[in-house]
């Protein structure tokens, strides 16, 4: 059976776009149907698409292509662990932003490339981890600054409509349905039940 090539792309949130990564992967030669995409944080490797690709799809002789090293993870130890896992499994990992991982060398020269790649991965892994730490630090600083300005976090408190009690009484006496009640109260169904629970 022919060795296969797969791609993996990751963005940190659903608002971000993975097109740049997919374009780079397909341009390199990865079939679009062989690209797995996750939309979640790179804090660890517990991501649905990635784990499926890793555990169920890739096999010895296959090639995994990613755009950047931190698409695997932003944790240096995780990066090293994942690369070691693929190496032991016989899966070749090519990282587009690390050109030395893209070249094919004679077996007797591979130790040189392994050494160079190990150095590059150590450096870039540290950068990725440092970037995540900076992001977390900025988030924490932003929350502290917002709290000092008395910015409230979480769901905003719902103001109970003036006719709440009378409408609820009609619903309780089956003179009115919940659907009719939320229309008159001009609130969402979830808000209706949240206010109802807060009264209990």
Amino- and carboxy-terminal Cα gap: 65 Å
Principal-axes shape call:
elongated
CATH homologous group name of the largest domain:
Resolvase, N-terminal catalytic domain
Number of helices: 7
In the sheet with the most strands, the strands line up as 2-1-3-4
Backbone structural class: alpha/beta
Mean pLDDT: 79
Proportion of β residues?
5-15%
Largest sheet, strands/sense/barrel = 4 strands, parallel
CATH class of the largest domain: Alpha Beta
H/E series: EHEHEHEHHHH
Q: Report low-confidence residues grouped into runs of 5 or more.
A: none
Q: What number of domains?
A: 2
By CATH, the topology of the largest domain is Rossmann fold
Do you know the CATH architecture of the largest domain? 3-Layer(aba) Sandwich
User: What Rg, in angstroms, do the CA atoms define?
Assistant: 26 Å
- The strand count comes to 4
Written overview of the protein:
The chain is of the alpha/beta class. The protein contains seven helices and four strands, in the order βαβαβαβαααα. The protein has a four-stranded parallel β-sheet with strand order 2-1-3-4, sandwiched between helices. The radius of gyration is 26 Å and the shape is elongated. The model has no long low-confidence stretch (mean pLDDT 79).
